[in-house]
Structure formats: C-alpha cells, structure tokens
Model the fold of this input.
Amino acid sequence: MINWKLPDQLIEESFQELAQGFNSQLKEEIEAEKWEWSGITNRRVGIGRTGKVAGSPRDIVDTGDLRDSQSIDYISPIYALYQWDIDHAVVVHQGAVLSNGGIIIARPWTITAQQEYDLLGNFSTLLSNKL
Done:
C-alpha cells in the first residue's frame, strides 16, 4: 500500500529541522563580532553581562535581552515566524537617528543570517537525506 501522506510528512520534518537551524543562525549573527559601531559601549555587569568595553567590530549583545527575546512560532507545519519581543529590536536591526542627532548604525542580523544560512540548499539537503 502506498502512503500518500509520506511526502508531506518528510517535507514537514525537513522544514522543522530547517527552521531550527535558521533559528540558531539568527542567534549566531547576534553574537558574531562583525558589526560596525561608531562608538564605545561600556557593557554592564550582571547575569549574562560581561562588563567589557565593546568597540568596533563587535557583537550586538549588550545585556543579552535582544538575543534572549528571540522566539520561533510555527504558524503551520511549513511556516515559521521569528520574533524578538523587546522594544529596541527594530532600532538595533534598522538603525535610527536620535533626537539629539546621534546615529545608531543598523545591524540587520536577519539579512546576514539569510546570506550565511543557505535556506534552499539546506532544505534540499535535509529532504534528500530523508528520501
């Protein structure tokens, strides 16, 4: 007997693995010491905080709140939504001009994650390995 649901099942399993791999890549991008920064940041000391001075290039983990706010929600078996539930996420990602004229340089970690993590190639490999 032919299991007609098997192709869908294999696609869904491969997608779930792909989504988890990409989730890890997003965190790696946040933690990568590759981001340009126009100044010096004195990082606070505390749980998950280093107390070190960060210049440029640097990672984008000051308090860890941005990285730790990352979540993945599965809207359907083949649709994942990544979110950062912290107010300053959009400012870090897109950059900003402050009211005092200061500039926060954009650090678009979701774009670099897509460049680093070959979504189509990884999905193809994951699925091929199941066939």
